[in-house]
Amino acid sequence: MTTHGDAVGQAALSAEAAATRQPATVSKTGSADEKAQVSTMTDQDADHPDRTESAVSRQPHEDPGTAAPPPAPKPDSAPVPARPADLGEADALAAAEPPPGIKKLAEALGNLRSAIGGTAYPLVMPSAEEAQRVGAALVTQLDDYLLPRLARLDAPLLVVVGGSTGAGKSTLVNSLVRAPVSTAGVLRPTTRSPVLVSNPADLPWFQQGELLPGLVRTREPSNDAAALQIVSIPALGAGLAFLDAPDIDSVVDRNRKLAAQLLAAADLWLFVTTAARYADAVPWELLTTARLRGTVIALVLDRVPVEATAEIATHLQDMLNVRDLGTAPLFVLPETQLDAQGLIGEDVIRPLHDWFGRLAADADARAAVVRQTLDGALMSLNPAVAGLGDAADEQARAAKALGDRVTAAYRAGRQTMADGLRDGRLLRGEVLARWQEFVGTGEFLKTLESKVGQLRDRFVSALTGRPLPGRYLQAALESQLVTLLRAISADAAEQAYASWQAHPAGAALLDLDLQRPSADLPERADRMVRDWQQWVLGLVRAEGAGKRVVARGAAYAVNGAGLAVMIAVFTSTAFLPTGLEVAAGAGSAIAAQKVLEAIFGDQAIRTLATQAREDLLLRAGKLFDEEAARFTDRLAAVGLDQEPGARLRQAAADVETARTELALTGSAT
């Protein structure tokens, strides 16, 4: 026959993200010659597992008009609320209080939705992009189908008509309802909105927007992909509606995504293909996904040359059998001419039309389809969410690895700082020269012993402009410490930068400024060292408050003693630089230590030096922490939760427990 198709689509969820199982209500046939059937067990069948009642039964290629719709579920399964006689009545739409099992499952689904929606995958990792895609698809499926369908098991059954470009979906829908309700055309890709066709009595359910809430309802044709055109056709029996979806293989990404979204909201998927395209890869991927999530499927093989009907239909049936889809009803439509309205002749479409007519008239059959599809979709959540949990755990591991690399880089800096205070490397160059000048010329002793010397030096300093004794030494100590702090910070920043650059998630968070220390580090280091020096002077002042020689020299003596304590911090292990510096500096340092011991006592001077060293290391550590925070703040900004994988798995486990207890299909499997 000659047909005209519509728009486009591809799966939003991969087969790997769905549950790897065949629904309990679908039995597999071994070959094209075996009877295909979709069945549910009755109470009597429960005692005889080998006996089933055919839900949809036919011999391959036989007249599909003999196919029967699915039967009712087991009487002891979750009850189906009685469907109002007329859903067009406003008060009929008020949902009754759901049974406890349904309420528990709805709450578990709500928690799962929150867990999925609240889990982010911001770090660039191999699993992140797929997890974002699957997570978004699951949230959409929960919003579009699972939650609203669970809330209204009695709502009309939605048949989503999907297939490849040019398969004739729109023409098929028009022919089934015997009216041109969905525009067909030859141009690709089409951009019009999907069309939903229902009986007037069912309009309130579809118009109120609980199902597919993200699509704006409209009564007029639209080119807006976010719109859903709703058409009322009295000729279509109440209880069943058709939704003409975009092409699943469209070149337009938006159309493919919309088609996948609509297929995920289907109670029954009517897949339409042609004699020329039935072996295309994309449709089979979607068919496999639909089977894995338990969606009830029927197929239409369209535009089949009469002389090739048996050969093509047999080959397609074999392909279905291989993929565990042999139980799906298959309707074969020959090539034919369309009538004046662009519809397939009634004699050609009648078997399919009658099959859907019987399904619409049988509330039990509709309920069986809804429950099977809903139960399959619920069962597929657990493995899909497990994949999200693995991806979330990978995010957490990556974040920890990046944090550990920064910690290691700046921990090494702390160790370098501590080593620098122990091994005497700071008592070199300018510091050593100024210390020798301060001690070797007797200035140190004079500051401690002579108040007259203090007054004399202040007078000379005022006349000449030269600093007071010890100021050169204090400046040299400050400069040496700042230089060490800057060098350590530079090395740590470079190490942290390189370690992040080697990690896929870290490289995406970097910018060039992180490769070097903060621009204001020199000023902060200067301030830190000056604050430490003042703290040491305060420590000496407090310790020497009762010492006569310090009290006599007041602040002048405290300054000299404080400088000596700082030098002691730099030579804590008495290991001084080698070579000539040892000969020049060792005697001076020992002399200073002896003088301090004479003033404060042996134990006191060791305590002063230890306290000063520890305080310096503490201040330096805080400075390094501030530098490391430039990296760790970027990690914190991505907003990763603690143990997100465990939260997802628990939410999915709660859904599975509630699903099993509810037993929608009459089986707890």
How would you describe what is shown here?
The protein has 669 residues and is an alpha/beta fold. The chain is 55% helix and 9% strand. Helix 10 packs antiparallel against helix 20 and helix 12 packs antiparallel against helix 17. The N terminus is likely disordered.
Structural class: alpha/beta
Spatial separation of the terminal alpha carbons: 44 Å
Radius of gyration: 41 Å
Q: Beta-strand level of the residues, as a percent range?
A: 5-15%
Strand order of the largest sheet: 5-6-4-7-3-8-9-10
* Strand runs, count: 10
Mean pLDDT: 77
| Integer count of domains | 2
Helix amount: 40-55%
Low-confidence sequence ranges: 1-95, 449-466, 549-555, 573-586
Number of discrete helical segments: 20
CATH architecture of the largest domain: 3-Layer(aba) Sandwich
Question: Biggest sheet, in brief?
Answer: 8 strands, mixed
How is the secondary structure organized here?
Layout: E1 36-40, H1 43-47, E2 53-58, H2 100-117, H3 128-151, E3 157-163, H4 169-177, E4 195-198, H5 203-207, E5 216-218, E6 227-232, E7 240-244, H6 253-264, E8 268-274, H7 281-292, E9 296-304, H8 309-322, E10 330-334, H9 346-361, H10 363-422, H11 429-440, H12 443-449, H13 451-464, H14 471-501, H15 504-507, H16 521-543, H17 548-570, H18 580-600, H19 602-637, H20 644-662
Parallel strand pairs: 3-7, 3-8, 4-6, 5-6, 8-9, 9-10
Antiparallel strand pairs: 1-2, 4-7
Helix pairs in contact: 2-3, 2-20, 3-10, 4-9, 10-14, 10-19, 10-20, 11-14, 11-18, 12-17, 14-16, 14-19, 16-17, 16-19, 17-18, 17-19, 18-19
